[in-house]
Design brief:
This protein is of the alpha/beta class and 217 residues long. It contains nine helices and eight strands. The protein has a single domain, classed as Alpha-Beta Barrel (TIM Barrel). α1 runs parallel beside α9. Its cofactor is Mg(2+).
């Protein structure tokens, strides 16, 4: 992968939240364990919360990620991201356009974009995204709406085409990490592999040990 990475993307493990997928445990407690294990970035993705509830959770998550010197991105909601001084936002297909989010947030905030095909990925880069998540790579119920898994061949193609960091997403468990890393991605994004683990800290640590070493520009 040719590198055009911004100095702010200093993580290769991107944890996406789902408070309904924590085996009954409180979300912030599970995320903190993952942060203790070395997770470098958290995307707060709780679409069903009211604006007030999301703000309050984002505020707590900002305090938590700051304590561990980790990045916080808010799914879709630019206003919430700005309100809690998050490190950026993650946009989907129905979100605010990338250029508009950049105008509102400025150059020093991260913009990640969910991509599910080559056109999405190239467009996101051209429009100014700092990084993308690409998937689903493997079968996963949460991404079934996007159709059949894309597989590692398409992931490798995207990783070689793009200059911005690519994070593999979708059905990635610990045993799949080496296969994904071999595709040349910058890192991985996942949900359940850590959130549902009996010991999120140890699971995060073991997954990170399989990832390529982080590097600075």
């Amino acid at each position: 992968m040719t590198s055009r990475e911004t100095p702010w993307i200093d993580f290769n493990f991107y944890l996406i939240t789902d408070r309904r997928n924590t085996a009954g445990r409180e979300l912030c407690a599970v995320v903190e364990e993952a942060l203790r294990g070395g997770v470098g970035a958290v995307q707060l993705r709780e679409k069903d919360l009211s604006s007030r509830e999301l703000y309050e959770l984002a505020y707590e998550m900002r305090k938590l990620t700051s304590r561990y010197d980790a990045r916080l991105l808010i799914n879709d909601r630019v206003d919430i991201a700005l309100a809690v001084d998050a490190d950026g936002v993650h946009l989907g297909g129905e979100s605010m356009p990338i250029y508009r989010a950049r105008m509102v947030m400025g150059e020093k905030k991260l913009i990640g974009v969910s991509c599910h095909n080559q056109v999405n990925a190239i467009t996101a880069q051209e429009k100014g995204a700092d990084f993308i998540t690409f998937g689903p790579v493997f079968p996963t119920p949460s991404k079934a709406v996007y159709g059949e898994p894309l597989g590692t061949a398409k992931l490798e193609e995207i990783a070689s085409l793009l200059q911005i960091p690519v994070f593999a997403l979708g059905g990635i468990k610990r045993n799949k990490v080496p296969e994904v890393v071999a595709c040349g991605v910058h890192g991985i994004a996942l949900v359940s592999a850590v959130l549902t683990a009996d010991n999120p800290r140890d699971e995060a640590r073991e997954i990170i040990a399989l990832l390529p070493e982080e590097h600075e520009d």
